[in-house]
Amino acid sequence: MDTAPPPIAPHATLPRHYADDGERDRYVQALFDGGAASYDRINAIFSLGTGARYRRDALKRAGLAPGKRLLDVATGTGLVAREAVRILGRPEDVVGLDLSAGMLREARASLPNPLVQARAEALPLADASVDLVSMGYALRHVPDLVGTFREYHRVLRPGGRVLLLEIDQPASPVALAAVRFYLGRVVPGLSRIIGRGERDSRMMRYFWDTIDACVPPETITAALAEAGFADVGCDVQLGIFRAYGALRP
Fold it and tell me: Has UniProt tagged this entry with the keyword DNA-binding (predicted)?
């Protein structure tokens, strides 16, 4: 009898944050629920250039245009969804989805589009119902890359695309040391001051630790291909900002 292959996690267990993979979902949900109120303020200061224009340009390069429908997975406070609404002109054509009730509460305060609380690997959408699936800087929080990508493939219409924005480690050892110091120490330290103390500092430490432990880009592109996507590619800017793209045949 054939057995299902083991899940491909985006990173190994992080004992600094949770004891085992069974605790990861609860930990991540509580972390982002608690940090939601400060997230936009922290992101605006420490985005390293990945602001509204970067997100908007990435969506346009992925083919988002008026008349299409977008699903923004792990929408958070709505940073990607907000740019999608500006492109499409119709809030009802942008569906934001997140596991964190706290993040969705913040998003609802400023966004008019539909928002849904659900998991990336269990999307409550019909087959072939959207033209683009986006995910901004949250790929490292899912339990299984291939399983998640298969859900994206299912809800996309033929010819639709997936866009995954991520931060990666730079190839240069010197650049890696600088980024590790900045994102791993400076950002968590300042987040404690400009945010809500240790809770927000811990959220940003987790943010970096997942980047530091993340599987290489080749594993992500291979998982997209295994899930049935074609034309898999990755655009890299400044050595650390990656925009993975793929086509649903």
Answer: no
Say yes or no: 139 and 152 in one domain. Answer: yes
Global model pTM greater than 0.85: yes
Q: Please give the annotated binding residues for S-adenosyl-L-methionine, written as ranges.
A: 77, 98
CATH of the domain at 128: 3.40.50.150
CA distances in angstroms from 142 to 24, 40, 47, 203, listed in the order given: 9, 21, 22, 16
In angstroms, the CA 230 to CA 84 distance is 23
> Per residue in 190-202, pLDDT tens?
888 887 788 899 9
Q: Are 156 and 127 in contact (CB under 8 A)?
A: no
Range 224-235 average pLDDT: 98
Mean pLDDT to the nearest integer, 192-221: 92
Report the 10 Å Cβ neighbour count for 165. Answer: 23
Binding residues: 77, 98
DSSP code, position 74: T
pLDDT tens digits, residue range 67-80?
999 999 999 999 99
**How many domains does the chain fold into?**
2
CA nearest neighbour of 148 among 165, 129, 123: 123
